[in-house]
Amino acid sequence: MRRRLGALWSTLALVTALGPATACDPALDPGTYRHPVPLPEAAPPSAQWIADLVGGLNLPPQCPKPTLATMVVLDTDGQTRAVALWLPDNLDVCYAVVNHAGVTPTTVWFAAIADLVPRTPMPADTTAGVDSYAFTAYRGQVDDITVSGDPDHLVSPVRRRTLDLGAGDLVTFAAYHYRIPPTGRPLTLTLCTPTGTCRDAH
Questions:
Q1: Distance CA 71, CA 122 (A)
Q2: Taken in order 121, 169, 62, 46, is the CA torsion positive or negative?
Q3: What is the DSSP annotation of 59-79?
Q4: What is the pLDDT of residues 52-88, one digit of tens each?
Q5: 71 φ/ψ angles, rounded to the nearest 5 degrees
Q6: Segments making up each domain of the chain, as ranges
């Protein structure tokens, strides 16, 4: 009799524990837990030098080595300069800036996407007189982002890519290439979207 009662209570406890996970309850928000983000397409074979260069560095511990299957190249001259990103999961991003392969050190960052979105774009370098990239992100799909204010020091327009982090959670990553003016000279750049929202670009 005791065994039967014990089995009955165990069954009731199991049903109670499974009760909240029924089809009638709301699904989990995909942004509340970490999961891989497959890319719709791999980076082109011509970008292998970027993956090889970055993969040979001492990366932040949260960043796996990028591969063509996991890497997005926002801009490159195909030889010595590039800015690329890869996602360890749906909440974080790793990004690398190659200012001049073999001459200037390549820099790699790790950032939470939620922290990156509202922030002034992060410059890869602040050394006077050198070329650099700045990197930022926007929630949703942003099809037109412009940078203006100092054409003498703007090397390229904004390069962007929108990625689906899962369940339609879109984020647009953007970068632009600029030249840092000599020491003491201010740099004025503004980054704007079609909706009219602008942010300091440096």
A1: 19
A2: negative
A3: --TTPPPP-TTTEEEEEE-SS
A4: 999 999 999 999 999 999 999 999 988 888 999 999 9
A5: -105, 140
A6: 35-200
Cα–Cα distance, 118 to 136 (Å, whole number): 9
Cα dihedral: 16, 21, 23, 25 (round 10): 100
Residue 185 has pLDDT above 80, yes or no: no
107 versus 181: the higher-pLDDT residue is 107
DSSP per-residue letters across 136-149: EEEES-----EEES
The whole-angstrom separation of Cα 15 and Cα 12 is 5
Q: How far apart are CA 85 and CA 96, in angstroms?
A: 6
In this structure, what token pair is assigned to residue 144? Answer: 């037109």
